[in-house]
Amino acid sequence: MPDYLTGFGNHCSSEAVPGALPQGRNSPQRPAFGLYAEQLSGTAFTAPRAQNLRSWLYRLRPSGGHGSYAPYDGAPGFQVDAEGEPLAPNRFRWSPLAMDDVDADLIDGLTRMASNRDPGAMDGVTVHIYRANRDMARRAFFNADAEMLFVPQQGRLRLLTELGILDLSPGEIGLVPRGVRFRAELPDGSARGYVGENHGTHFRLPDLGPIGSNGLANPRDFLTPCAWFEDRDEPFDLIQKFRGRLWVARLDHSPLDVVAWHGNLAPWKYDLARFNTIGTVSFDHPDPSIFTVVTAPSDTPGVANCDFVIFPPRWMVAEDTFRPPWFHRNVMSECMGLIHGAYDAKADGFAPGALSIHNLMSSHGPDVASWTAATEASLAPHKIEGTMAFMFESRWPFIPAAQALSLPELQPDYDACWQGFPKARLPI
Ligand SMILES: O=C(O)Cc1cc(O)ccc1O
Ligand SMILES: [Fe+2]
């Protein structure tokens, strides 16, 4: 079992071998045991202190010991291709992608579903679904384009990163920072889930405003792995994502050889069951921003490049209120998934593993069946249980990948959700 340090954005220190971490300086002339000191930065050197992220890694070899990168064609589904334009401003929904014909590791088993912005432009978000049944044995990956937020939906996912091991189960999320090398194992033999690539500034905890100093995701529930390394002198492929494409270089050893590290740029995981959910105790359905777990701000205050929002179990007590999500058209764009259970705005067609996209100004909200049930329900206190939906919400519209639009799981009749509402009757 991996060990974890607690807290969000803390300056951590960890060593897998006692004495490996230098004391009192970052880069001594001769680090202990002949280790190599290397800085990994997550922000510009001159970023304000409150946002500045970097870590110091002490490793068996410097990370640069690889040859030149050649194109990697093994994971065509993960890469960015020319998109089909013009994109119809439709609502999109995919049923869970089938697992039967899967024969891939995490990287080869990624299917890019939607992107916004140019992945090399340090802005926007890309959403993928992964389906895998093989461990990455002698392959490691890192992403120059984005930090990666993993949302397991089926099966556990073990991310063995340069800075330690994240063991993720469905219901937990895990973040691997830009540039951090990792490989993935599947303790249950196969796994499916979602990945959000955040190309912009880092996910952080949202401000709480009038909520006060506690609530939503509490910092101490974020877990950062302790230092871990593998000493393997054998051929390794190092795959890198750079400007939307994949590249591979050869190493003669595992690049996961960081014996000790310190700093505040590090992987983390979070159990969504720890989320302190806040809602109305009077009337009206509040905006879903109260369910924000982490947010990646843009340059415009309050307008996120990407919010990660969940719809967790919670008590519904609002009086004289239509309790599920209302009908709406938003200026922000929404990409939703479901980890388990049912979502209260969609009675049908949105199964665990599914994905939907509601771009800006597209009319959406409850389907007819959910609307009918909620309109007729008695408004006794009621607990929504056994569910966990989530949403990547972005200021940029999501452009479905051409490959996603030709998947058999794309639902041809999604618009039918909003057909058949009875017309309102005015008094004559
Ligand atoms: O569209 C959705 O289902 C997500 C959503 C939920 C909610 O409670 C309010 C607005 C919103 O976009
Ligand atoms: Fe919405």
Structure in words:
By secondary structure, this protein is mainly beta. The protein folds into 2 domains: 68-254 and 265-272, Sandwich (Jelly Rolls); 274-414, Jelly Rolls. The protein has helices spanning 368-376, 402-405, and strands at residues 4-6, 12-15, 36-41, 54-59, 70-71, 92-94, 110-115, 125-132, 139-143, 147-154, 157-161, 164-168, 172-176, 182-185, 191-198, 222-225, 236-242, 245-251, 258-263, 268-271, 292-297, 304-311, 314-316, 333-340, 355-358, 382-384, 388-394, 399-400. A 9-stranded antiparallel beta sheet has the order 1-16-20-13-10-15-8-7-28. A hairpin with a 6-residue loop joins strand 21 and strand 22 (304-311). The structure holds 2-(3,6-dihydroxyphenyl)acetic acid (OMD) and fe (ii) ion. 2-(3,6-dihydroxyphenyl)acetic acid binds at residues 285, 288, 325, 328, 330, 334, 345, 358, 364, 391. Residues 328, 330, 334, 358, 364 line the site of fe (ii) ion. Keywords: Dioxygenase, Iron, Metal-binding, Oxidoreductase, Phenylalanine catabolism, Tyrosine catabolism. Pathway: Amino-acid degradation; L-phenylalanine degradation; acetoacetate and fumarate from L-phenylalanine: step 4/6. One of its GO terms (molecular function) is homogentisate 1,2-dioxygenase activity.
